[in-house]
Design goal:
By secondary structure, this protein is an alpha/beta fold. It folds into 3 domains: 143 residues, Aldolase class I (TIM Barrel); 45 residues, no CATH class; 116 residues, Alpha-Beta Barrel (TIM Barrel), CATH 3.20.20.70. The chain is built from 9 helices and 19 strands. α3 crosses α4 and α8 crosses α9.
Length: 348
């Protein structure tokens, strides 16, 4: 392992997602679309202009674990299986409530640190297969700003029969989604708030996130959405209803995960999310017609809202406790075994 930032900056490759503009480079891996003069870094702090070309992170991980797929969280994507999850350093947001801040804010926050390990895509694939993982997921930091590294891994993973996914804040561009699409089986996107002023304080613009969500859905890539319910920040009934209506406008079958906040990083004085907060938010979402609404981070405390139910006959199709699917009543093709209702998702 290594923790030298200077050494980390050497682990780069020529990027694909940029164009030259009068001696500067315009990066379009994310919606910031940074225009970088020689030697300058983007908002993410990991993509930079070196001699007129964009250099991007390559050949290392700051974290690599075999996790339950439910931890991402994905509930309609290979449930009950394990995913090899890897991440790098950097993020294009600066959320004060970030729960992965050790890696995502590593190059922005002097209190954070970068501990990384050099790896090859081949080593990651071998580890995934050795541990019985069925998929490979780019997570922990923002995967769109390290898209070239993810694509290289995903290309090899696909040839080895593994599914590929990203866990993103959704601050993307149509170009980066198109770039990853041939190797991308699923995307989880955070919808942090439905208030543009709040999004700008986090470092982005609401419209870019909703546009990315719409693009992923229209490209027929499996999509699940997560909102960390933070008391006093995004739990207002009107805001929750607006988020639910937006998701329902795309499809009432998109899974929406409502997860519990705990004080972390720079938001240490906020109270924790209670089970009743999540249950209230679930009912708002269901009132707007969403068929698959889930709670997270409070295992066994939110009635049966961790489980997947058939929208037609109400049979419990997948029973969960925390990150574990402990009972499944789905056919191999993803249909209810009682009424044969087809449940949307990636099941095999």
């Amino acid at each position: 392992m290594n923790n030298s930032i200077e050494e980390l900056e050497k682990l780069t490759a020529r990027g694909d997602l940029f164009i030259n503009e009068n001696g500067k480079v315009r990066c379009y891996a994310c919606a910031h679309r940074c225009l970088l003069a020689e030697g300058k870094h983007g908002v993410c702090k990991v993509r930079f202009n070196f001699s007129g070309e964009l250099r991007v992170p390559f050949g290392y991980v700051v974290g690599c674990y075999c996790d339950p797929i439910e931890k991402k969280p994905f509930y309609h994507f290979l449930p009950g299986t394990s995913a090899l999850t890897f991440g790098m350093a950097g993020c294009n947001f600066h959320c004060p409530f970030c729960q992965n801040w050790i890696t995502s804010q590593a190059l922005k926050d002097k209190n954070s640190e970068v501990i990384f390990e050099k790896v090859t895509p081949e080593q990651l694939i071998r580890f995934a297969k050795k541990t019985g993982c069925k998929s490979i997921v780019s997570s922990y930091n923002e995967p769109l700003i390290t898209a070239e590294w993810a694509k290289t891994i995903f290309q090899l993973a696909t040839t080895e029969g593994l599914k590929c996914a990203i866990v993103s804040n959704g601050y993307g561009t149509p170009e980066v989604i198109s770039y990853l699409k041939p190797y991308l089986n699923a995307v989880k996107i955070d919808l942090k708030t439905f208030d543009d002023k709040k999004y700008r304080k986090l470092g982005g613009v609401l419209n870019h996130v909703t546009s990315t969500i719409s693009t992923v859905f229209k490209e027929n890539i499996w999509l699940e959405i997560v909102t960390l319910i933070i008391p006093g920040f995004n739990d207002d009934q009107t805001e929750l209803r607006e988020m639910a209506r937006f998701i329902a406008s795309l499809s009432k079958k998109i899974p929406w995960h409502l997860t519990a906040f705990h004080p972390d990083y720079l938001m240490l004085d906020n109270r924790r999310t209670r089970p009743s907060d999540l249950i209230r938010a679930v009912h708002i979402a269901m009132d707007e017609g969403l068929e698959f609404v889930y709670t997270g981070n409070l295992p066994g405390q939110t009635q049966d809202f961790e489980n997947t139910q058939c929208p037609r006959c109400k049979t419990t199709l997948i029973k969960r406790l925390g990150f574990h699917a402990i009972k499944m009543n789905l056919s191999e093709g993803g249909a209810c075994q009682v009424c044969n209702e087809k449940i949307p998702g990636v099941w095999k």
